[in-house]
Design brief:
disordered N terminus, 11 helices, Rossmann fold, 2 domains, six-stranded antiparallel beta sheet, globular, alpha+beta, six-stranded mixed beta sheet, 17 strands
């Protein structure tokens, strides 16, 4: 006869102080998996209008460190409460009884909704938070799924990173000032990562399996966060050793560019990193024009950028950080030059 008892796992890194009053909320089928861009839009709308219908998990800011030379871009290391019970018995040894929060983070490019206390949490006040404010956009996980699982393996918490800017919107500016010990809450992980809008079976994983050369486009802080998760992911690093991975990253300036210290590590793995600075662009040229010039007007044009002997049709393109209209215009130009529309993948949020 099988005997099984539940026992607690090791101590958690994340602890929820009295400053946040956690209201029990029912699980939402939407939060468990938002499979499409429409699902992500619904997630954000529901977080704004009926947050009580979502599952929110407390997260502690473990570290707030600079991610750019001027300190304007910040990496928040979060410890998300993630305790589960394990079954132990004569025939069953250490079997996870429930899903962990981190189990939903499978591929780079996935997102969470976040909410924070409306008063200044950096003051050290222990007063209960009477109101939680939901951030007006979803936040990409900037650490790779591999890193998150490795760092969280022996903890009752999941360690993940968010990238925020002191020059972003109001929510980002507030989050960027949170110090260690501050508390926020996050939804369950949502989205399908980098995936085609035209063919649901085409995604980052399928392109890696097919050996497609990758053209990666990241615009601003919102764009580089999911790209950093991808470039730190073991399958992409292994892919860069045998196939071309060419990254174009648009930033305001070199001092405000994120992850500058990691570029050399990416390059050592075989990734080609091309920074494009708006401050150095021609007068009146925005991110779109700067990108188009770099991709299409250089020696050899797009073919040289892709570096594929089988032509543009063999390449896969990852786009992150461009708004919908800009991404659509760029996609049309790439398709006109031979890139398959099904191989253009966007991290939707």
């Amino acid at each position: 006869m099988l005997l099984a008892i539940a026992r607690p796992t090791p101590r958690s890194v994340a602890r929820r102080p009295a400053a946040i009053k956690r209201t029990p909320t029912p699980r939402s089928s939407l939060v468990c998996r938002a499979d499409t861009a429409r699902g992500l839009t619904q997630l954000l709308e529901q977080a704004q209008t009926t947050p009580e219908n979502l599952t929110w998990t407390p997260a502690t800011v473990v570290e707030n460190r600079e991610a750019s030379a001027d300190g304007s871009v910040r990496t928040l290391l979060l410890s998300v409460e993630d305790r589960v019970n394990f079954l132990e018995g004569r025939k069953v040894r250490h079997v996870q009884q429930d899903r962990r929060w981190i189990d939903d983070y499978r591929v780079p490019g996935q997102f969470v909704a976040a909410r924070y206390c409306s008063h200044d949490q950096g003051s050290g006040s222990t007063d209960e938070c009477s109101e939680m404010v939901v951030a007006r956009r979803l936040l990409s996980l900037a650490s790779s799924p591999y890193e998150a699982r490795r760092d969280s393996a022996l903890l009752d918490a999941s360690l993940v990173e968010l990238l925020v800017s002191r020059t972003g919107d109001d929510d980002e500016r507030l989050l960027a000032e949170l110090g260690p010990g501050s508390m926020i809450e996050v939804s369950r992980v949502a989205g399908e990562g980098f995936a085609s809008l035209f063919n649901s079976s085409n995604n980052l994983v399928s392109c890696l399996e097919a050996g497609h050369p990758l053209l990666v486009i990241a615009a601003g802080v919102r764009g580089i966060a999911p790209v950093r998760a991808a470039l730190s992911w073991t399958p992409v690093l292994a892919h860069a050793g045998s196939s071309r991975v060419n990254v174009f990253y648009i930033a305001d300036s070199q001092t405000s560019a994120a992850y500058l210290v990691e570029w050399d590590m990416w390059r050592e793995a075989g990734v080609v990193v091309n920074p494009l600075y708006l401050a150095d662009g021609s007068a009146g040229n925005g991110a779109e024009q700067l990108l188009e010039t770099a991709l299409l007007d250089g020696p050899g044009g797009l073919a040289a950028v892709l570096g594929s002997t089988r032509g543009a049709k063999d390449a896969a393109v990852l786009i992150s950080g461009l708004d919908g209209e800009a991404a659509a215009r760029l996609t049309r130009k790439l398709v006109a030059l031979g890139v398959s529309s099904e191989n253009v993948m966007v991290a939707e949020y």
